[in-house]
Design a protein that fits this description.
Layout lengths: L10 H13 L4 E6 L2 E5 L1 H6 L4 H4 L10 H17 L3 E9 L5 E13 L2 E10 L1 H17 L4 E4 L2 E8 L3 H15 L6 E9 L4 H16 L3 E5 L3 H9 L8 E3 L2 H11 L1
Parallel strand pairs: 7-8, 8-9, 9-10
Antiparallel strand pairs: 1-2, 1-5, 3-4, 4-5, 6-7
GO molecular function, one term: kinase activity
Protein name: Histidine kinase
Pfam family, one: STAS
Length: 258
């Protein structure tokens, strides 16, 4: 009498078969349990710029940057306890040579031999993110055209949303654009800005200070009452800024004065 079918596959053989299948995947695939890496495929080791044996046994949370580690730890704990699938998310990892990479991360529970584990799949989106960032920067630069009116005078209409990132880019781009324009005055119209918040208020104050240092007077037009209230909230004295209701009124005043 036999104890069972001779075709049964042992646990180590199952793990080996699983590894052989996953190893041919082009995407980084990591199997981990209790935050320790049990297996990483060849593509994954190449992505992390390490050998497979160097990654196995490592703390899987350790590859993530500090701002993501707490979130990833909780995500792993939930996946292990509830056996739930971790939804697709974007995060940043640090490879073994110290370089950073942006990835899409997708996780789901698996049975790895006799071990309850989680399989994490990472897709490198570093180039995609860079191209998106470069495109956004170009878009923001195009959406902030400086329009010459007469010698010494130009108008800059700002349109869309001005968040922290765009604010910093504009503070860098605008002074560069006025170089060589021989401007004495720049009218910045903010009537087309969607968001009225502290970021916008601080941006107006900072760009005014920068342009003063370059010897260029700024006239702001299109400032709505709610923006003035936001300026009060962050203790920015808008009385130091030269403001006029509309671009047409600003042009008229400039021409009369010159």
């Amino acid at each position: 009498m036999t104890n069972g079918p001779t075709s049964l596959v042992s646990i180590p053989e199952k793990e080996k078969m699983y590894q052989e299948i996953v190893n041919y995947s082009d995407e980084t695939t990591i199997i981990h349990s209790n935050q320790k890496v049990l297996y990483i495929n060849k593509s994954g080791a190449e992505f992390f710029k390490a050998k497979q044996e160097e990654v196995v046994g490592a703390d899987v949370v350790g590859v993530f940057t500090d701002d993501f580690k707490e979130l990833i730890t909780k995500r792993i704990q939930k996946g292990m306890e509830d056996r739930t699938i971790g939804e697709l998310m974007e995060t940043t990892v640090r490879r073994f040579d110290g370089t950073l990479a942006d990835v899409e991360l997708y996780c789901y529970p698996v049975q790895y031999g006799e071990t309850i584990a989680i399989q994490s799949i990472m897709r490198d989106i570093t180039l995609q993110k860079k191209m998106s960032h470069d495109f956004l920067q170009l878009k923001n630069e195009i959406s902030a055209p400086i329009v010459p009116i007469i010698d010494g005078l130009a108008v800059l209409p700002l349109v869309g949303s001005v968040d922290g990132d765009r604010s910093m880019r504009l503070l860098d781009v605008i002074p560069q654009k006025v170089q060589g324009e021989n401007l004495h005055c720049l009218i910045i119209d903010v009537s087309g800005i969607y968001n009225i918040d502290n970021v916008v208020a601080e941006f107006l104050y900072k760009i005014d200070q920068i342009m003063r240092l370059l010897g260029i007077q700024i006239i702001f037009t299109g400032i709505r009452p709610e923006l003035a209230l936001k300026a009060v909230d962050v203790r920015i004295d808008f009385s130091k800024l030269k403001t006029i209701g509309t671009v047409k009124q600003a042009l008229k005043q400039y021409l009369l004065a010159n």
